[in-house]
Write a structure and sequence with these properties.
Blueprint lengths: L10 E7 L3 H14 L4 E3 L8 E6 L4 H20 L5 E6 H13 L5 E3 L7 H9 L6 E2 L4 H7 L10 E5 L1 E2 L10 H4 L4 E2 L2 H13 L4 E5 L7 E3 L8 E3 H9 L6 E5 L8 H9 L6 E3 L7 H6 L6 H14 L4 E8 L6 H14 L3 E6 L17 H24 L5 E9 L5 E5 L5 E5 L8 E9 L3 E9 L4
Parallel strand pairs: 1-2, 1-3, 3-4, 4-5, 5-6, 7-10, 10-13, 14-15, 15-16, 19-21
Antiparallel strand pairs: 8-9, 11-12, 17-18, 17-20, 18-19, 20-21
């Protein structure tokens, strides 16, 4: 017989995350808000009490993958006798909420990126088979205010959301419509969360935002009360004991200022890595994309970054086959890539997103032409990536150990330049920053020999 004071069995929560780092962060916070209701994360959707698909709307194929996944989960729900609750969250939910409910009636809840703090309430409503099933209004300030002030860290690295939304309205992008206007979290809330993470052993934080370098906020009164940008915020977080590494993603060229560039040179905790999407090397295409900058402006930022931090690794995003892209426009992109020299980059064929201005533009590039251009661009980018990784062979570098490798006795970690590093070492170095001599390199990772636990200033 069960006593009245015995705890109920934990409920099983499965979250599948698609897309960007912001979605990874959002999934972590969904776990946080559901934990007081007794939900514990599990690794598979089988037999889960609540399944959440945290979706991305950037790519058309990604959207269709969500519907395919829902078809499989529907079968699991039927096998559970209807006891499983299915929720679709994220940007697909924001953009296609009513369509999701129409196409897949097995879905119980739909909520956009600004509403996941309401997930416990929505789950409770669903369990009573009452209340609103669709929640996609923009309420970002309310979301940030409603989140738990503390969160459980999962290892020595953590994402930390500082900014949401986008006011840039690139003609190919759905983010302004799915994430809303740009909004910055207050300094005190960010610092409180960073301190909490540091107290749990987190040594590296990645500051997140759709346009993270657009972050701004009032400085703490003890700091003079002036308006801060991301550079001042980063320097402030660098003073928190235990935080040895700071990264940020994703930035926009229009929001790169001189002080943020300087911070890469004067703040040791700022990792020598910059992901700054350019999308195209053609001014004509950049204008059609409404990027708000030229290729030369972007190249000037690259030159300033290299001057401030000569050891910096550069990353970017590219779209090929944008409507109206000519052979010369594409060659301008190739020339920009050759001039910058990237450590890593992400490249895609243009994919029209419904509701965006670019979807209605004339001059769509034939698929076979776009595919050929993408292959040429990727070949150049991969050549640069292999060369960058090979340049580290023979060096002893500082690696933050983040977990066990695939082989017995192997550990893996992350270099200052964001590369994956694999090496043999004792398990007790987990979470440490260690010296590793690089002995080999592939396109995607470094192989090393463990030297010692590093001294960190």
């Amino acid at each position: 017989m069960t006593s009245e004071t015995s705890k109920p069995e934990p409920k099983r929560l499965f979250i599948k995350t698609y897309g960007c780092q912001m979605n990874v962060y959002d999934s972590e916070r969904m776990r946080d808000v559901l934990r007081p209701l007794g939900y514990q994360p599990v690794d598979t959707a089988d037999n889960a009490d609540l399944v959440v698909l945290n979706t991305c709307h950037i790519r058309e194929k990604a959207t269709e993958k969500v519907y395919s996944e829902l078809g499989q989960i529907k079968k699991m729900k039927q096998a559970s006798g209807g006891k499983m609750t299915i929720a679709v969250a994220g940007c697909v939910a924001q953009a296609e909420g009513a369509e999701i409910m129409r196409r897949q009636p097995a879905v119980d809840l739909v909520l956009g990126p600004q509403a996941y703090h309401k997930l416990p309430e929505m789950v409770a409503r669903a369990s009573r088979a009452a209340g609103e099933r669709l929640e996609t209004e923009f309420e970002t300030l309310e979301k940030f205010d409603a989140l738990p002030k503390t969160r459980e860290a999962d290892g020595p690295t953590a994402f930390l959301s500082v900014q949401e939304g986008c006011d840039k309205f690139c003609t190919f992008c759905v983010v302004p419509y799915t994430r809303g206007a740009e909004l910055s979290r207050p300094v005190d809330d960010i610092v409180m969360e960073a301190r909490n993470l540091a107290a749990q052993g987190v040594r590296e934080v990645t500051l997140l935002g759709q346009n993270v370098n657009a972050w701004h906020g009032a400085a703490p009164k003890l700091e003079g009360g002036s308006e801060w940008g991301l550079s001042q915020l980063s320097r402030h977080i660098a003073k928190i004991g235990g935080i040895d590494r700071i990264r940020y993603s994703t930035s926009h060229p229009r929001d790169m200022d001189a002080d943020l560039i300087a911070a890469h040179g004067d703040t040791p905790e700022m990792m020598p890595f910059m992901h700054l999407p350019v999308q195209s090397g053609s001014d004509r295409i950049l204008k059609a994309m409404n990027r708000g900058h030229t290729a030369e402006h972007y190249l000037d930022i690259m030159r300033q970054l290299k001057e401030a931090q000569p050891d910096i690794a550069l990353a970017s995003d590219f779209i090929v086959g944008f409507p109206g892209e000519s052979d010369q426009d594409f060659e301008d992109t190739m020339n920009l890539v050759r001039e910058v020299g990237y450590a890593i980059a992400y490249s895609f064929k243009y994919s029209p997103r419904p509701g965006t201005p670019a979807a209605d533009m004339f001059g769509h590039v034939p698929d076979e032409v776009a595919t050929e251009r993408l292959h040429r661009l990727q070949a150049l980018l991969w050549e640069q990536q292999r060369a960058f990784n090979a340049s580290k062979v023979g060096q002893t570098i500082k690696v933050l150990v983040t977990g066990k490798g695939r082989e017995a006795g192997q550990m893996h970690g992350r270099s200052p330049w964001q590369q994956a590093v694999h090496f043999d070492a004792p398990e007790h170095v987990m979470g440490d920053i260690v010296d590793v001599k690089v002995v080999g390199a592939t396109q995607n990772a470094l192989a090393g020999e463990f030297a010692a636990v590093a001294e960190v200033a």
